[in-house]
Amino acid sequence: MDLTVEWGQVHALLGENGAGKSTLMNVVYGLVRADSGEIVFDGKAVRIGSPQDAIKLGIGMVHQHFMLIPPLTVAENIILGHEIATGPGVVDVRHAQQEVAVLSKKYGLEVDPAVKVQDLSVGIQQRVEILKALYRGARLLILDEPTAVLTPQEVRGLFDVIHALVKDGAAVIFITHKLAEVIEVADKITVMRRGKVVATTTPKESNQAELARLMVGRSVLLRVDKTEAKPGQVLLTLKDLTVQDDRHQVAVDNVSLEVRAGEILGIAGVEGNGQNELVEAIVGLRMPRAGQIKLGERDITHASTHSTLEAGLGFIPADRHRMGIVLELPVADNLVLSRFDRPPFARFIVRAFDAVREYAIKLIKTFDIRTEGPEQLAGSLSGGNQQKLVVAREIGTQPKVLLASQPTRGVDVGSIEFIHRRLVEERDNGMGVLLVSSELDEVLSLADRVAVVYRGRVVAVFDQKEADRDRIGLLMAGAA
Amino acid sequence: MSRALRQRLFAAVFIPVISVASGFVVAGLAVVVTGSDPIAAFTALFQGAFTNPRAFPETLVAMIPYIFLGLAVALGFRAGLFNIGAEGQFYLGAIFGVLAGNSLHGVPGIVQIPLALAFGMLGGFIWAAVPGLLKARFGAHEVITTIMLNYIAFQLTDFLINKGPMSDKHSTAPRTPFIDPGAQLPIIISGTRLHLGLILALLAVPIVWFLVQRTTIGFRIRMVGFSQGAARAAGISVAWTLVITMGISGALAGLAGADEILGVSHYMPSSFSVGYGFDSIAVALLARSNPWAILPSAFLFGAMRNGAAFMQFQTQVSSDLISIVQAIVIMFVAAPVMVRWIFRLREVPVGGIQITQRETAGVTRET
Amino acid sequence: MDFLGHLDIAGFVVATLIAATPLVLAGMGGVMSERSGVVNIALEGIMLTSAFAGYAAAVATHNLWLGVLVAIIAGMLIAALHALLSIQFLVDQIVSGTVINILAVGITGSFYRTYIQNSSLGGTGVLPALHLTFLPNAPFIGVITLAALALIPIVHFVLFNTVFGLRTRACGEHPLAAETAGINVYLVRYSNVILSGALAGLGGAYFTLQQIGNFLPNMTGGRGFIALAAMIFGRWTPVGAFGASLLFAGADAFSGRLQISGVNFPYQILGMLPYVLTIIVVAGAVGRAVAPAADGKPYKKS
Questions:
Q1: Is-contact C248 C229, C-beta < 8 A?
Q2: Residue B45 falls within a domain, yes or no?
Q3: Which chains touch C (3 or more CB pairs under 8 A)?
């Protein structure tokens, strides 16, 4: 693939999760080696074998997951690897802090250099990352999904910084999958799909709809055929639920929602607005601080995961590899992951392999999991089939409520369609589905009702009919 | 041969064989450097382990604790736990075994022996469940806590038998009195020290295998070992599994200790173990945590330990030489990358040894 | 009462300082290694090897100072093996440390039997010591103890004030971040592990060249693990490790005095102290001891 970036421009690299944007930029930054091809920087062909090489050339990168060391101070983080030293290798803290202060001022990136990074908010940490790159003399700055974790105000601040940099003659590569941002900030746009460049354009020549089409590769965005929902009784009730995150900050703030039989309730929101904590609280992986969770008539607020699943909850976790499946175990074992210890899969404490196998073969067939057989290790399946495995397992238990968190993340289009169809089918059979997805289009096309979350609060709930994409987008961003 | 099968063979057979062979080569070099004859040394080692009168039964006697302890450490590995504390649990099992073996007099062995063995298991269970609990509850790393508990066990033993509450008041040496004759394990081949413990150890292998591979408890253990995240999401109590795994592991080590008291020494001396528990880490690694493979692995270590004494007596080569063999064996088994590098092998085998996995490698275990 | 009457405070303090020597040296070695992200349970084996090598060199050259030098070099070499296994070959760091500890027993035991035990060379004498004549009973403080005391502020300064120390801490917390900042993580980790070998090696020399002037099999007797405990109890800092070493060595010295005085007290309780305290600390009962975030995790460049 080819990509040309010019000085004094913001170049947006647009594409879905897994389109290869980050990998490409990791190659440019020397973290990943390219199999073939060359990089031309400032008119010269260059070899970038390590981040050192990239830094030397004047390339800086702000990773999606910050490369900061929490217990070190801002100044220490910024100078790391390019330390200001007095005497034989002694860090000159005061000098370093002064340098940082000067840079901060120049680009309006205010931050206290003496504070430990672990005590800073995410937005400020990002500033530190940008300062770190600038301190190393970066003239080409790569920003990998920089807005994913920011509040709208912080996004605004970031865009100001980007404009200042570009005005100064630098170049910025802006990796994202958010269309509106691209239109707003970019001078030039390259759209990637499955590791290939599918188009290069400018905001003036294009619009969001066209970009979306290029990005996804078809003219219609994920249309799911479904009839109108016929909601029945309430199956899952969240009442005044408040949940804290790992840092003891309120992540879910006084949320009340209901999921009825035969409906899909979609939760829309930018990632990091409390969705994970909400999901974990429902499943019993995180104890709520206040409020109540009821499954049917049963109070599961403080129930363990085991009892919650027992009570009739199906759970599709967002992180397939870490939570959805055990890569090292066979497909069959993975299909009974939460039910291996009860009949017919076990007698007393002895596992009944025949029953497991038989059940697995049935599910493999019903859910079209492409595998060599139930003995194949789950880790060797494709992403789409792994996800179908998880969906099969969770629907296979016929739960009252299915909690599906990012159910199609990193999955091929065929599997996405399959999974979407299954979710709608189960809805039609009377299951209650709580869908949590950061893909707004997925929520809009699947959900019968849409709840928008922002900073841990439900800011609005719409019926599908009245759900307006732009309005929801604004709400997700905390506007309106 | 399929690629998968070749890889499994490579990991299960080739690596261990190469490891042991390399261990002896390096040890042989050490013998040469110290000015002795390696052929003579290893011949003596072999004679001492197998061909001398009564050597072979003694090798089997030395193999018994290695089987129990090797299974103990291997079981921990399966849950991603590194139980370095087998030595301490071995001691506690022995203490508890002596306690029980000394409490009933004139009661038949059929009552006394199971009771004393069960007591030994209890001792080991407690000593291992504590670090399991500390890990589950506070995230305290089991490597650190079990190392510390080893030394606490040594001090505790010293306290108990060195003029302490369990010491033999009629002896000047720091040791406990003999256990009741009824609690002693019967000898299975007369004229040797080979005792019933061998049968128990041989039974323990299929039992542990069954536990790990065929029961729901074993499935929990393996699931936690592979992926704590997936285990949690599936409603499995990771904390409980860690405690139980450590407990069972410790119970096996404790059984080894009680068995050693009941079968061999019949009392608790001050230098009770001389490193059985530490060696068992190597036993488990060489067996790649496979219960069946513990048998040949324990046999090898029993033979080395038994033969080493004769080697030292016969050739003046230190019995510590076998430690060099052991170190090299662990090194090779644990570093398939290195083996391939040294022997210039192309094929990349999967994984190597499953010791600790994704979420439990290292001190702060998160991914 | 009688016991307290015999208590000689100054003598006790000096005895404690001396007994703390190998603990603080190996403990600081552990600090450097683990701060860079490599768990080092090999301290015991490193000290044992160095104790032996230093003694053997001193015997062979009739020069105690050369013995000290060789002890340090031996410590660095065996630590380099730990580094090679755990950093290069991605062996689990606990396994690698176990290998070193077992290997040390094997090597020192084998060579001891052939070269030392039956040789007529034995007995080297000990390194010079500072004679504190102004104190009651005029105790001696050996040079390695003095060196250890001098090294505490130096190691502390290196870790917290120098470029090397900053990079070390970075690699122990977040090696990928360090790499993206242009730091060679392997180099930093290798350097620190080898440095820890030098420190523990000097600690090993204490046993043979300062304490008794002879080598005995397994003479380190688990001090490497107490040093590990001191490092944890001292929260992975040199000064903390020193404090913990003093506490542990003090308990040891006190229990020795108890035994001699014939007071009927189970001195083993004091012997358990370091281990019990360490367990309490890693369990977080008295303020949590938090290891460097990437401690024990192999780093693999993609």
A1: yes
A2: no
A3: A, B
Q: What is the 3-state secondary structure (H, E, C) of B228-262?
A: HHHHHHCCCCHHHHHHHHHHHHHHHHHHHHHHHHH
A310 close contact with B: CB closer than 8 A? yes
- Set of chain B residues whose Cβ sits within 8 Å of the Cβ of A350: 214-216
Q: Calculate Rg over the CA atoms of chain C.
A: 19
Q: pLDDT tens digits for C198-253?
A: 999 999 999 999 998 889 888 998 899 999 999 998 999 999 999 999 999 998 88
Q: Which residue has the tokens 């301490």?
A: B88
CA triple C164-C168-C169, angle to 5 deg: 125
Tell me what pLDDT residue A327 has: 93
- CA distances (Å), origin A192, targets A9, A20, A60, A175, A201: 19, 7, 21, 10, 12
Distance from CA of A88 to the nearest CA of C (A): 8
Residue C302's alpha-carbon distances to A27, A302, C48, C297, in angstroms, are: 11, 42, 37, 15
Which residue reads 């020597």 in tokens?
C21
Distance from CA of A393 to the nearest CA of B (A): 11
Q: Decide if C34 contacts C295 (C-beta within 8 A).
A: yes
Contact of C283 with chain B, judged by CB distance below 8 Å, is answered with yes
> Which residues have a Cβ under 8 Å from the Cβ of A163 and sit 6 or more positions away?
none
Domains of chain C from N-terminus onward: 2-282 (1.10.3470)
* Chain B CA closest to residue A279: B233
Do C163 and A85 lie within an 8 Å CB cutoff?
yes
Long-range contacts of A222-228 (CB under 8 A, 24+ apart): A222/A416, A222/A420, A222/A441, A222/A442, A222/A445, A223/A445, A224/A420, A224/A421, A224/A424, A224/A445, A224/A446, A225/A424, A226/A424, A226/A427, A226/A428, A226/A446, A227/A428, A228/A448
Task: Map residue C100 onto helix, strand or coil.
Answer: helix
Q: Which of C23, C86, C98, C288 to mutate to test the interface with B (most CBs of B within 10 A)?
A: C98
Query: How far apart are the CA of C302 and the nearest CA of chain A, in angstroms?
Result: 6
Interface residue of A72, A80, A84, A134 to substitute, partner C, most C CBs within 10 Å: A80
Distances (CA, A) of C182 to A96, A131, A416, C64: 18, 15, 40, 43
* CB contacts, 8 Å: C109 with chain B: 318-321, 323
Residues in contact with A377: Cβ distance below 8 Å, sequence separation at least 6, in sequence order: A327, A328, A329, A330, A331
Domain of residue B78 covers 60-298
Q: What is the DSSP letter of C218?
A: T
**Residues in chain C with pLDDT values less than 70:** 1-7, 117-124, 285-289, 302
Answer yes or no: same fold for A10-216 and A234-476.
yes
Q: Give domain status of residue B77, yes or no.
A: yes
Whole-number Å distance between alpha carbons of C223 and C206: 12
CB A442 within 8 A of CB A448: no
Record the pTM: 0.88
Which parts of C62-115 fold into alpha helices (H)? 64-83, 93-111
Would you state the pLDDT for residue B129? 97
CATH 3.40.47.10 fits A234-476, yes or no: no
Can you read off the two tokens belonging to residue A95? 């000098």
Rounded CA separation A320/B233 (Å): 11
Alpha-carbon gap, residue B98 to B110, rounded angstroms: 16
pLDDT tens digit string along B254-277? Answer: 999 999 999 999 999 988 877 899
- Please give the CATH number for the structural domain made up of A10-216: 3.40.50.300
Please tell me the total count of domains within chain B.
1
Q: Which chains touch B (3 or more CB pairs under 8 A)?
A: A, C
Q: What is the mean pLDDT of chain A?
A: 88
Question: A340 vs A357, C4, C83, CA distance in Å?
Answer: 12, 65, 42
Which residues 109-128 on chain C approach chain B with CB closer than 8 angstroms?
A: 109-115
